[in-house]
Amino acid sequence: MINRLKVTFLFGMFMMLFSASMHAQLKQGELVDGIAAVIGNEIVLESDVNEQMNYAKQQGASNIDKCEFLENLLNNKLMVYEAKKDTLIENRSAAIKEQANAKYSQMLAQFPDEKAMLAAYKFRNAYEMKNAIEKIDTDTYYGQAKYQRITDKADVTPNEVTDFYNMYKSQLPEIKDEVSLGQIMMFPKLTEAHKQELIDKLKKIKQDILGGETFESQARIYSEDPGSASNGGLMKNISKGQMVKPFEAAALNLQEGEISDPVESEFGYHIIQLVKKSGKIYDARHILLLATPTDEEVATAKKKLDSIRTLVLDGKMTFKDAAFRFSDDKRTKFNAGLIPGADGSSKIEKETIPGTISYELAGLNKNDITTAFEDIDERKRKVVKIVKVEDMIPAHQITLETDYDRIKQMALNKKKSEMVEKYVNKQLPTTFISIDGRYDTCNFKGDWKKESLKK
Q: Within the chain, which residues score under 50 in pLDDT?
């Protein structure tokens, strides 16, 4: 029963699919392997069911019931089917198609050529793969939109939260050791001499291209962009607004075939060649030299952060104010530097803290601040940080006193699931349903089998 409740909370009707983005990306080597069910004109593939089960296992679920996961997907597909008929939900077909083209280009940049990518993902041609990406994004958009429409007015009162807790408290999991952390992060600044060195190198590369070398060969030799260097720096079907502003401004101010002067962005320095432009979509090549700081530049940044730490410890500035004034981390600088946890709160399970930060926190107590240390960000760029221990929460059983917001969210999710379940059951009698015979022994919560037999 405890495990079933856990599965209900983590992977219940729609919440798992939408929050985890079931098909956030296509996976190499996977091949569509048959139809599990049809709802209206929407299809559930057998691979969809297996993927959801694998995701649940990765999140710690056990005793997994395949029928339960199929029913979750049946519910979702019915939502998508109904959403496409809902005139109050905006039709975003054009934007989704443009987004699919952009994703295709991003994926292509990871391969030496298009043929290699199509083979890896088991598609016969680009049209087929783009359609698959578009279908995934379409389902995600319409499913989320319908879910929000149905649950928009959902709320729970304090009494309902208490009732929920009293009903399920024996089944709620124990909270592991947690911490609340704040950080101030900086990108080490390059010296003017270092910047000029990168600019001069790019100018020399540009002159070599103008003198007869090909942009493609120079990109393969010099570019430090791991996504496009092996493809001669080529990025195809870039949507307007997709790239960082300095890159896009430079690219769109070029004539086809023209090469820009060195351009600075948050990634480093580029030269860009516009290959072709059609409306809001364009193809471009670039050569990137990363703005990788030297040991001396890292040391200078550490020294500055340690001086900021001293100001905070001496009471001359709050950590919140220091984060707002000095941090380069846009996610946290406007929120007192607080690092968000997996559930969106400021609480982080200690065992999930990255090794570099965990090492620096060893032996620290509440309100202590680390000295400045070197780390890397999600884009693998060198950064320096100081981290403050805002709070330390020992492992404990969930209670209303210590975890009210968590329990409230659980109660709200349950109410939303009930609202969606009620909506789905109302639509079943008027919806075409066909479920593959391999699921004949399933005992669904809804009347899926009964309605399928009617059709």
A: 1-24, 30-32
pTM higher than the cut 0.85: no
Nearest Cα to Cα of residue 222 among 287, 158, 319: 287
Residue 276 and residue 280: Cα distance in Å, rounded?
11
Q: Smallest Cα–Cα separation from 272: which of 290, 285, 281, 257?
A: 285
**Interatomic CA distance for residues 323 and 181, integer angstroms:** 12
Cα 393 from Cα 370, distance rounded (Å): 19
- Looking only at the bridges linking them, the beta strands covering 281-290 and 268-278 are antiparallel
CA neighbor of 28 nearest in space, from 117, 89, 109, 90 = 117
pLDDT attached to residue 14:
46
Non-local (6+) Cβ contacts of 422 within 8 A are none
In terms of Cα–Cα distance, which of 412, 396, 405, 421 is closest to 172?
A: 396
Task: Give the CA count within 13 Å in the CB-facing half-sphere of 16.
Answer: 28
Taking only the tens place, the pLDDT of each residue in 51-65 is: 888 877 776 777 788
What angle, 0 to 180 degrees and rounded to 10, lies between the N-to-C axes of helices 66-85 and 46-58?
A: 120
